[in-house]
Amino acid sequence: MIVVVENIVSKKHQEKIKKSILNKSFPWYLGDLGLHHEFKHTIKDGIGAAIEDDNSRSNFTEMVLPIMRTASEKGKFKYNTIDFATAFLKAPTSAKDSLPHIYTKEKHIVIQYFVNDSDGDVIVYDKKWKSGMKKQLPLPESSIEKRITPKQGTAVVYTGHQYHTEEQPKLNHKCVITFSAMFRDILT
Description:
With 188 residues, this protein is mainly β. The chain is built from two helices and ten strands; from the N terminus they run E-H-E-E-H-E-E-E-E-E-E-E. A hairpin with a 2-residue loop joins strand 2 (29-31) and strand 3.
């Protein structure tokens, strides 16, 4: 399952997210993958926030939850919890792209929301993880199922067992919010 949803939230809400996250005062942290920001979670059942009281995480969570809720409707799945929600900000680079990978071997859905227009496509492969396989695999271009160019307000939803990767941005800063949700049902 791969679902691409343009304008997953209103233009006004897209601008609010972009203005907040790309503001100089937004709390970014340096991590293995560059600058990142973790939103508060766990969110239970996708209805209202059952957010952990954890001061090390964001107070911007309520701003991004409409993305997850609409992705659930458009992708026709119900989720138990949001395992993580993290924003990543990547500067243009000549660094090598990461290998196709999965986040976890648990049954989950991945939602990637593009905060701004950029280069550095998200690539989802037709190869799915099965027991005994590695979490990272080199895969040929011929196994690409979908390539999505980052466009503000667009979200891509896919099952977490599909290998995927992101190209590094070469020309523009790229900001993506990634959700991983443990799901209980896909309704398609």
